[in-house]
């Protein structure tokens, strides 16, 4: 008698195979790629109780989490948590949110993401400066979060609450995807008011670091375990002779990567970054597992591409380097300054070579324009949105030559 | 009241009498008596290391209370008590009571809502270092209200019934400063059927109690914590009414003490779903069974007083005890995997099973030393949670009070 596989068995095997494939991390990764690659304006629906939605606005200064389900392309991830996020941009009109997918369910992810930031771009009429900056970081080989725009819907009635920039948060899932590990020590830097710190050595007290570096992994470890390595890094930066930064920081910080980040932030006129107007700001620090080596991860570049004044599109290369110990050493040492200037030229070439960044800016504009016009909670009128995009596109056209001229004047 | 005090003050001041009978007291004629009360407990603890929780203090000044109690113009009794270690909300008991009829008393002020034998037992008179989890987290605790109470049928039946402004301060840490539950009614009835007889069962008592209160919408579900004090089940979003029922039993034949209690809390959750839908009620349940034995032979009382105090020719009183207890929370319904959010329709059953063994050494009226060994086993959906099946804590308490 011939063996025959019955149709129900075949169907079952296929279904199981489909289920296994659908649940595979690589499949989840490719799905979330289509949310964060910016190729289309996706719709995201946050289901949450009406009272919680009201409370999120009433108590927008609090970091209270509320339970929520998150739906995208018909898939509903349950037991997520949502809270208001942001510092200077916190508001009750169109607050930014943080979605945490494993707060209530250990290990749960949203197609591979532990958390997702929904940025209302409160301080950015164009809504695209953070996305363009992060694109540039990644293009230059720096591990940086992905950003894409979404139309956000909220509540049981699926109310349209505006355009948001969905940003991949710097979490263990981010670390795994970029560095292949997540068991090291991750910190978010908190800028304190009137504290224009730029890696200056504050002395031996570990307590100084506690309010400035919030641990995002190993949260309950001792202060000594958490902060002695950061103190060591800061002391090394301060002790390192500017003529030989690399050997003194070898195993602690990648000087070339730092130079690249410095150059990108200078190029895009990020005035609230490594050499910001109020000291060093907007970064995460990750120390690899079992090592002393740390990496700086950029965060929230939302005020880049701004008008710099004095007839300039962006700042000169030496702008504010004196505010950061490491940046100043790099600037003062000819061989590191040369690398910094070379990085600036590389960025200028990258941006202007085939109009890549301009194309991204124009595509973003087209993608979100109608949704922004329909956004009843948009913090800026359409005219300001339009003007901001005109300015950014002009910046991208003009900034490469401006940078080249600066560099030329310094190397002649 | 002020006029009456003023009228009686002048002659009474001439009759001020200070005494020290176990505690300092003052008597001002027939106007006022005031006895000073002091309670302190210093704990030394060793709790298990648990993932994702901060390490616990090894030494804890658990209680430092100062109070005064007495009579006012014979007709009234009063008590004031404050916690010195709680600068934000120091007041604990503040009440005045009177006896308008022989078998009926009325108390008004802030005091414990009459529910749960273990919760109503003074913290200085506990058989173990900690109250049962059921009494600590499911009983309502203190609130502002009025209660009538008394004893009838030759003290065979004791009753308490009251109405309170809110729902007690046990439900949330912040309940004292930001009360959420609204008006709550409570009643408790305890029967001692053999109280009038001089036999072994004279101290036997059994009782039942209830509370019923309004529960505004919000994250105001009852909390549950483990012995080390970590959240075991979190506040669910609730809306509607909260009802508690409780049963209790106590028997103290000679030096032996037996005690048990059962408490169940039901919280309604109208409109609390993610999509504003009604959710199944949330339940929490706790019970314990306790046995103690005063090895040195003294009668078991709330506070055992040694027949031969330590350092005064005797060893004091030594008591051993054991307690088995469980604290659990759940909601009925179908397991749809949505257990872990505070608005989850189905809340996965969680339970903390605790075994406590202890030795109490009463030096004298003032000093008691308590040592406990505690084992916990925590379960989720009936299964022991990985790494939480065999958790041991050791606690030692030095208690001084009068």
Defining key terms:
heterodimer, A: about 400 residues, alpha+beta, 2 domains, seven-stranded mixed beta barrel, four-stranded antiparallel β-sheet, about 40% helix, disordered N terminus, B: about 400 residues, mainly beta, Porin, 16-stranded antiparallel barrel, two-stranded antiparallel ribbon, 21 strands, about 5% helix, globular
Structure explained in plain terms:
The complex is a heterodimer of chains A (412) and B (402). Chain A is of the alpha+beta class and 412 residues long. Chain A has twelve helices and eleven strands. In chain A, strands 1-2-3-4-5-7-6 form a seven-stranded mixed beta barrel. Chain A is globular. Mean pLDDT of chain A is 92; it is low at 1-5 and 18-26. In chain B, a hairpin with a 5-residue loop joins strand 12 (224-225) and strand 13 (231-233). Chain B contains three helices and 21 strands. The longest helix of chain B is centred in the N-terminal third of the chain and has 12 residues, at 2-13. Chain B has helices at 2-13, 117-120, 133-138; strands spanning 16-20, 24-28, 32-46, 59-72, 76-83, 91-101, 104-112, 142-152, 157-164, 184-191, 205-218, 224-225, 231-233, 238-251, 256-269, 279-294, 317-330, 350-362, 367-380, 383-384, 391-401. With 402 residues, chain B is mainly beta. Chain B has one domain (36-401): Porin (Beta Barrel). Chains A and B meet through strand 2 and strand 3 of A and loops of B.
Question: Could you provide a short overview of the structure?
Answer:
The complex is a heterodimer of chains A (412) and B (402). Chain A is an alpha+beta fold and 412 residues long.
Relative strand content of chain A: 15-25%
Please tell me the CATH architecture of chain B by its name.
Beta Barrel
Secondary structure: helix percent of chain B:
under 10%
Count, helices of chain A: 12
User: The CATH topology of chain B is what?
Assistant: Porin
Rg of chain A, alpha carbons: 23 Å
> What summary fits the major beta sheet of chain B?
16 strands, antiparallel, barrel
Query: Which stretches of chain B of 5+ consecutive residues score pLDDT under 50?
Result: none
Q: From the alpha carbons, calculate the radius of gyration of chain B and give it in angstroms.
A: 23 Å
Question: Strand tally of chain A, please?
Answer: 11
Detail the poorly predicted runs of chain A: 1-5, 18-26
Number of strands of chain B: 21
Write down the oligomeric state. heterodimer
The fraction of residues assigned to DSSP E strands of chain B is: over 45%
Query: Overall 3D geometry of chain A?
Result: globular
CATH superfamily annotation of chain B:
Porin
What is the arithmetic mean of pLDDT of chain A? 92
Q: Indicate the structural class of chain A.
A: alpha+beta
The order of strands across the largest sheet of chain A is 1-2-3-4-5-7-6
Distance between the termini of chain A: 90 Å
């Amino acid at each position: 008698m011939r063996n025959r596989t019955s149709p129900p068995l075949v169907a079952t095997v296929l279904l199981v195979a489909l289920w296994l494939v659908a649940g595979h991390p690589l499949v989840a990764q490719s799905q979330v790629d289509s949310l964060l690659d910016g190729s289309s304006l996706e719709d995201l629906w946050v289901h949450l109780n009406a009272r919680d939605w009201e409370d999120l606005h009433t108590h927008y200064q609090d970091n209270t989490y509320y339970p929520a389900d998150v739906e995208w392309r018909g898939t509903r991830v349950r037991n997520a948590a949502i809270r208001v996020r942001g510092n200077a941009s916190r508001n009750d009109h169109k607050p930014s949110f943080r979605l945490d997918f494993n707060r209530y369910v250990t290990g749960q992810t949203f197609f591979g993401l532990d958390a997702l930031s929904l940025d209302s771009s409160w301080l950015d009429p164009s809504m695209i400066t953070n996305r363009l900056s992060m694109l540039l970081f990644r293009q230059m080989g720096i591990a940086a979060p992905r950003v894409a725009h979404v139309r956000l819907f909220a509540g049981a009635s699926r109310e349209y609450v505006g355009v948001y920039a969905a940003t991949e948060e710097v979490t263990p899932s981010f670390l795994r995807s970029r560095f292949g590990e997540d068991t090291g020590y991750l910190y978010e830097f908190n800028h304190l008011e009137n504290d224009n710190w730029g890696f200056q050595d504050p002395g031996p007290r570990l307590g100084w670091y506690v309010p400035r570096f919030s641990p995002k992994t190993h949260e309950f470890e001792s202060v000594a375990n958490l902060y002695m390595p950061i103190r060591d890094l800061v002391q090394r930066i301060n002790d390192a002779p500017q003529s030989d930064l690399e050997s003194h920081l070898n195993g602690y910080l990648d000087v070339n990567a730092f130079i690249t980040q410095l150059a990108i932030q200078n190029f895009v006129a990020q005035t609230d970054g490594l050499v910001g107007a109020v000291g060093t700001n907007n970064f995460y620090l990750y120390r690899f597992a079992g090592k002393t080596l740390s990496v700086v991860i950029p965060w929230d570049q939302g005020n880049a591409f701004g008008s710099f004044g004095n007839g300039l599109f962006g700042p000169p290369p030496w702008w504010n380097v004196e505010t950061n110990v490491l940046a100043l050493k790099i600037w003062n040492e000819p061989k590191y300054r040369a690398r910094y200037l070379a990085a600036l030229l590389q960025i200028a070439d990258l941006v202007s070579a085939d109009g890549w960044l301009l194309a991204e800016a124009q595509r973003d504009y087209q993608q979100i324009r109608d949704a922004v016009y329909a956004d009843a909670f948009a913090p800026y009128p359409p005219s300001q949105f339009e003007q901001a995009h005109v300015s950014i596109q002009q910046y991208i056209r003009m900034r490469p030559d401006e940078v080249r001229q600066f560099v030329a004047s310094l190397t002649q | 009241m002020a006029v009456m005090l003023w009228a009686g003050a002048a002659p009474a001041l001439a009759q001020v009498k200070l005494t020290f009978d176990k505690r300092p007291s003052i008597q001002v004629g027939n106007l006022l008596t005031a006895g000073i009360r002091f309670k302190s407990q210093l704990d030394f603890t060793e709790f298990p290391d648990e993932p994702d929780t901060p390490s616990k203090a090894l030494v804890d000044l658990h209680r430092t209370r100062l109070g005064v109690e007495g009579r006012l113009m014979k007709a009234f009794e009063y008590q004031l008590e404050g916690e010195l270690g709680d600068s934000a909300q120091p007041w604990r008991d503040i009440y005045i009571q009177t006896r308008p009829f022989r078998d009926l008393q009325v108390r008004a002020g802030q005091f414990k809502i009459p529910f749960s034998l273990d919760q109503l037992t003074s913290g200085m008179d506990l058989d173990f270092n900690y109250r049962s989890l059921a009494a600590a987290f499911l009983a309502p605790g203190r609130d502002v209200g009025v209660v009538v109470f008394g004893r009838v049928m030759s003290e065979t039946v004791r009753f308490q019934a009251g109405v309170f402004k809110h729902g007690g301060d046990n439900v949330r840490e912040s309940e004292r400063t930001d009360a959420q539950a609204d008006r709550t009614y409570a009643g408790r009835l305890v029967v001692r059927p053999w109280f009038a007889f001089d036999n072994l069962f004279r101290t036997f008592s059994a009782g039942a109690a209830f509370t019923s209160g309004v529960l505004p919408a919000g994250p105001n579900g009852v909390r549950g914590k483990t012995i080390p004090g970590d959240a075991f089940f979190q506040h669910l979003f609730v809306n509607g009414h909260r009802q508690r029922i409780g049963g209790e039993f106590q028997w103290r034949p000679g030096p032996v003490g037996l005690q048990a209690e059962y408490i169940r809390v039901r919280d309604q959750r109208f409109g609390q779903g993610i999509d504003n839908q009604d959710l199944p009620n949330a339940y929490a349940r706790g019970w314990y069974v306790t046995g103690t034995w005063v090895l040195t032979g003294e009668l078991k009382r709330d506070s055992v007083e040694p027949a031969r105090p330590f350092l005064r020719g005797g060893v004091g009183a030594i008591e051993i005890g054991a307690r088995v207890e469980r604290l659990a929370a759940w909601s009925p319904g179908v397991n749809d995997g949505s257990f872990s959010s505070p608005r989850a329709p189905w809340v996965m059953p969680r339970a903390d099973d605790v075994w406590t063994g202890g030795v109490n050494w009463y030096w004298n009226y003032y000093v008691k030393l308590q040592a406990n060994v505690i084992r916990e086993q925590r379960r989720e959906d009936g299964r022991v949670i990985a790494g939480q099946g065999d958790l041991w804590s050791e606690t030692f308490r030095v208690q001084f009070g009068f």
